[in-house]
Amino acid sequence: MLKVVDLLKMPSLGQSYIVAGHNGMFNVVKKLEIMEEPYPGVLEFLVPYGFMLTNFWSMKDDKEGRLKLVRSMIEKRCAGIGIMPGPHLDDVIDPEIIELANQNGFPIIYVSSSVRWGNVISEYGVLTHSNIMSSLDAQLGEILNSFSDFHSEKNVGHFCREMEKLLGLPMIMSTDTVYSGDSGQINIALVISKIQAVCQESRTTLVSPISIRLDDEYLIIVYFGKRSMVATYVSNSAWNQPALQIFHKIAPAVTKELDRMCAVPFYKKNSQMIANLGETQVFLALVKRENIQNVVKELDYHYLIYEQNTFFNYCILLIPHEFKKINEIYPEYQKIIQTLSPDFFVFSSVPMDKKELQKEVEPLKYMVNTLSYLDGIYSLDELPLLYILSYAPFEHKSRLFLNMKELDVKEEKAFLDTLRLYTVIRNMSDVAGLLGLHTNSVKYRLGKALKQLGYNEENVLGDMYRIKLLIQLELIALES
User: Fold this and answer.
1) Could you tell me the pLDDT band of residue 432, with boundaries at 50, 70 and 90?
2) How high is the pLDDT of residue 402?
3) Which residues pair with 160 in a beta bridge?
4) Of 333, 185, 158, 176, nearest to 260 (Cα)?
5) Three-state DSSP class for 454?
6) What is the per-residue pLDDT across 133-145, written as a single tens digit (0 to 9) for each?
7) Distance (Å, rounded) from C-alpha 379 to C-alpha 70?
8) What is the distance between the alpha carbons of residues 331 and 328, in angstroms, rounded to a whole number?
9) What digits encode the pLDDT tens for the residues 72-89?
10) Contact at 8 Å (CB) between 247 and 167?
11) Kind and range of the H or E element at 314?
């Protein structure tokens, strides 16, 4: 049976809400009518389980009549009333009516002035008499509203949770990042790993949608966009539930919306995707700066966007190892730095296969979020040390290492950063390629920095003080 709360599922009442009498929201509705007669003439039209819609134009100057009407509807066991107060009541429902409705559990729906009664009556007829449309279909209006909000807010996480709430199904969406709702009973990582395993085996032959067996009880249903994915999972006993039919209706539209939120992985058509890199190794670079969403437009086509995070303003790039020599990557990094002017840049000194990459990425993202205040150029190998030192007690820093007050860090920062990079990379030519400098300029900077720190210049090529020197330089980077 149709309930008062079900009326809110109609598209025309998508922006309406129950303003009073919430205890009666599950009252059965057997008849819906538009009320035009004033009180007391309208009394002959009141019937049990009837629901009236009105803007009170015939009683706009009769407050007592409006109150008596609601009292009579309660006595007649009517289902409730929908009031559009905008045109004739200055958009205010009488407080006395609100109080009376709350006392008696008599539901009142606030109706927006933009609603047309003809649309409400038409949708009500379809809702109650059609054998095809389920009650969930009436929620399409609310779903469309969520799509509209998504257009303006561009918040995938919120959109995912709203869809889950409307459908009553666990929702998983992916753009450059994976998002999920709140009500799932299964570990989302398990679902994603199952989907990825199938994709890696036969991604080029997949046709959307697909169904994947998760375990003995659950099935996963997945729809693919060009670069996105939306999925849910259901138990065997719920395979024919109405909510899943709505999911099938809206999922293709959802993937199209999600595609617009994705970074373009490659700019050159038919370039290889990460799943198709095979045994090719990749170098990793992380770029952090404002307006990170514009990075993709400025990049060369052969850089792969692994992940883009607009909240923390970073982007992880992968560069396929197609160089004759490994150290050719450093001038490539310099091109990225010159093109994007990042505030914070992290690079890998050696290429990685896909397994090694997965081991590096998660700790990297965690450390970058913690060290978000840093700027400059850093090796991936430095970050764990920086992370540990950031939590070291202040007295350890001040007693065991360099007194920061003796350094003009701001003036000598470029020299100190050059020395720090050299202690990690251990090759002047590579540091020169990374910074876009001549080798002699690098050597000059190293000498000046060592002298500033109290070391002999010749130690630049030795290993004697390397560990202590590196820790000092990392502390300088943190404290400055």
Assistant:
1) very high
2) 52
3) none
4) 176
5) coil
6) 444 545 666 777 7
7) 73
8) 6
9) 999 999 999 999 999 899
10) yes
11) strand 314-320
Long-range own/partner contacts, residues 455-459 (CB < 8 A, 24 or more apart): none
Residue 443 is encoded by which pair of tokens?
């050597």
Q: Phi first, then psi: give them for residue 437, nearest 5 degrees.
A: -120, 165
- Residue 380: how many CA atoms within 13 Å on its side-chain side? 21
Contact 25, 107 (CB under 8 A): yes
Q: How far apart are CA 336 and CA 259, in angstroms?
A: 26
Quick one: 92 exposed, middle or buried, by C-beta within 10 A (0-12, 13-18, 19+)? Answer: exposed
Could you give all domains of the chain from N- to C-terminal order, each with its CATH number? 4-131 (3.40.1390.20), 136-259 (3.30.450.30), 274-387 (3.30.70), 392-479 (no CATH)
Alpha helix (H) ranges present in 76-167? 95-104, 117-129, 140-153, 156-167
Burial class from Cβ neighbours inside 10 Å (0-12, 13-18, 19+) for residue 158 reads middle
Rounded Cα distance, 272 and 348, in Å: 21
Q: 16 with 115: CB under 8 angstroms?
A: yes
Q: Cα dihedral sign for 86, 92, 97, 98?
A: positive
SS (H, E, C) 164-228: HHHHCCCCEEECCCEEECCCCCCCHHHHHHHHHHHHHHHHHHCCCCEEEECCCCEEEEEEECCCC
DSSP state of 57: G
328-331-337-340 Cα dihedral, nearest 10 degrees? -80
Nearest-10 Cα torsion for 190, 194, 196, 199: -170
Assess contact for 27 and 80: CB atoms under 8 A.
yes
Angle, helix 409-425 to helix 439-453, in steps of 10 degrees: 110
Specify whether the CB–CB gap between 451 and 457 falls below 8 A: yes
Secondary element (H or E) of residue 333: helix 329-340
